[in-house]
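Exercise 7. Given the components listed, write out the predicted structure of the assembled complex. Treat all entries as one system.
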Amino acid sequence: MIKEQIDRIIDKYVAKEGVLIQLLLEIQRELNWIPVEAVNRINERLGIPVSEIYRVVSFYTAFSLKPRGKHLVRVCAGTACYVRGGQRVMDATEKAIGIKAGETSNDLEFTLQPVNCLGCCALGPVVEIDSKYYGTATPKQIELIIARKRSA
Amino acid sequence: MKPLESPSGLEQLRAEILSRKDPAQLTIALCTSTGCEALGAQEVLDALKEELKKYRLEGKVKIRETGCLGFCEQGPRLVIYPKEIYYFKVKAADVPQIVSKTLLKGKLVEHLLYNDAVTGKTIEKLSDVPFYKYQHRLLLENNAKVDPKKIEDYIALGGYSALAKSLYKMTPEQVLEEVKKSKLRGRGGGGFPTGRKWESTRNAPGEPKYVIVNCDEGDPGAFMNRALMEGNPHGILEGLIIAAYAVGSTEGFIYVRQEYPLAVENMQIAIDEAEKYGLLGKNILGSGFNFKVSIHRGAGAFVSGESSALMNAIEGKVGEPRPKYVHTSEKGLYDKPSVLNNVETYANVPLIINNGAEWFRSIGTESSKGTKIFALAGKVTNTGLVEVPLGISLRDVIFKIGGGIRNNKKFKAVQTGGPSGGVIPKQFLDCPVDFDEITKLGSMMGSGGMIVMDSDTCMVDVARYFVNFLCDESCGQCVPCREGLKQVRKILDDIVAGNGKPSDFETLQKIAEEMRVSSLCALGQTAANPMLTTLRHFKDEYMAHIVEKKCPALVCKKLLKFYINPEKCTGCQYCAMSCKDNAIEGAIDKIHVVDQNKCTQCGACFDVCPPEYSAVQKLSGEPVPQVLPEDNRWIDRPWALAEVSGSKKAMIISNANVAADLIKKALRPVLVVGSNAAETEYEGKNLIEYLIEFARKAAIPVVATGQTVNEFLKRGYTPSDSMSATEIGCRLVDPEWMGVESQGQHDMVLFVGLPIPTTVELLSGLKNFAPKLKAINLDNMYTPHATWSLPSSNVKDWITTIIAMTSKFEDGGQ
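Answer.
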């Protein structure tokens, strides 16, 4: 199953130059993580050394070597959000989900990531939950959204 | 669409598009860029479509989704053409009014007009709004005029005429010369002259040559590249094609950071459209010039925005910088000569070609020409994107355009240039904004982020923030950057925790100098700037942290204590309800106290304490006063005891059937539950559980006050909303409030579990100010101010009534 899915993605990138990151991004998007099968398969089919694939995967924040949660919560830690209380929103989100920044909850429901800047600096603090942006976020608002996602 | 084969074909198409445009066409332009989206633009758009359908206006009124218009704080923003009516802070609930009043009757919806935060006055004309008045919007202006997903909109504005002019009337050398003469400097940070960059790539040996757009806008606090790419991608594309022509390149890349999905989407559409129209790809406009371009998405690494690192990333490798003695203009992407410029740099190119270098040079200062977009953010009144001629003073940007500091606080500093820049304190506010002047102050222009800080911002904390940021983002290749940052972070962590030493200053200076001299790339070389500039201008703040163990701005948690001033506390319970650590002890009508051993300094209590009381205070560097003895904390409150109901008294409901029937008749009831509800148990079940069952069966939305929400959540039920009792009271009297489910005003409210004085206060308010609202008191203490009330009774009778009432509902409220 998963192997076929990986193969189908790799098919699109065969015999092209400089594809590793774009290929991994697509796998990450489809599977929500980079399983070891994917690393091996890329190595077999594209001839890129496993060490190099791991180096790229571990360098960029977009990739995860562990499965990510169903809901991706990203709290902006950019400067503009920070001076307007972003850290407090982060603290509240950590408490609401019950995990620390950068972690995934055991039930695979939530992954919480700090992100350097979402580019909505005028609306800080900003939180992105499942690709939806929430401007001028308050700890209470985020707690409620998390609770709703949990019970949904 | 047949590809265009000549400039005259393009002109013909333009004429055709323009002739199709009806100047009297009713058009609504709504900003749907990421910023406004975060404030609910999608909901507004959906409501608009729905409402137009209702009035059968779909064919008559056009909706145009535009990119960012800059004034994000006031979003979502929409413009109604041809009258050019500007509405700000539009919500989905405002849409029916916009359609029925403005579109059908031509009247203005007053509360949506711009209300100046400084003067408090309403301004109708956009050109009079101070935020726009002092700007010079060459690049951003087009965002309002085009739908980024439609190439025809851009062509109608004269788009691609600069490309046609370059290809047919100019040689590549002439284009290069024009850009050189314009003195355009790179907008990404360093400010390197663009023409010279292009020239060295053009003259470098090796084929093919590459041109690259850098949209890895990693500097936190800058978002102009996102706005340009989301709002007017063709402007950037045209600039890129012209650059390719000038340097002799046939292939280009657009690198976009992964955090900008909409920018990728709009740019991809732009590329596809341009190819379809023959403006990109093979034989562009029939000139014989070929150029192809592809988008490369980043994968989240700040350092990848550095030019050589970005090229590594495009090659599919780890985005680490390369040694700088090899210039990327000669050996860049795949070791071929490559030009890399920022999004905003490319966006300027078509303007220069169309209007000439002379015109471009007339804007700006001696060394810095043209306009620059700044992202104004932080503690300033008007936040958003600001495009100004270079040379304007910082004071004008922050005070005239930005409207000064929020909440009448004092300006402390402005941070420019992101993590490589520095802070500029108030004595330099009159400094002109120009590449060289800003650098002289120890900061840099960077990509244009301007984060304004007020007296509540701790400068040591800001320095630590940036160092921490860079520590995470350092690629780790070279030792000075990787290890130097770690040591600096450790020292700053100690200082903000109150463990700093006076000798730290010297150590910090030494490490900073070492990093500057010996780091591989600009990230490490400039990493110490934020720390050095704060140290230079705000040494007294560092000293306060180190010597007095005090954070003057009251920010650094470990040096803070929260304290409730007994003189000011009114026993309202807000702070205790907000405290997640149970560190606040108190009751209604009792002075609250903080248990310093339990307090985690989260600050939630400070935020909720009503400003008119301001009882919760932050202390730093001083001892916390003794708390009052338990017996002295009670507050006498005669008003709560004398309760006069007036002539209209609540009718008593003694039969559960009657209660259920009354509730069934309501169109949109809402149940408000207070914290006392959780204290009642009956037959092994908590009242909250009985209420959940009731709310489910009767399909009534629940509003939980304060911490009561947790009582619901832990029992697996999510209330529709959570707010304080006072807030729900205020909302219920507001005729424009659309209810907790945004479906319309509530016509009935049921109260249970609120402290009795609160219920009395709320109900008497509703009785007088929301005459149409029916109120039912479900507590076991008769309250005369409700419309109907349960009688005073014991717990058994009370809960039995609630259970019986619940049983009268089939699932789903019937």
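Discussion: The radius of gyration of chain B is 32 Å. The mean pLDDT of chain B is 91.
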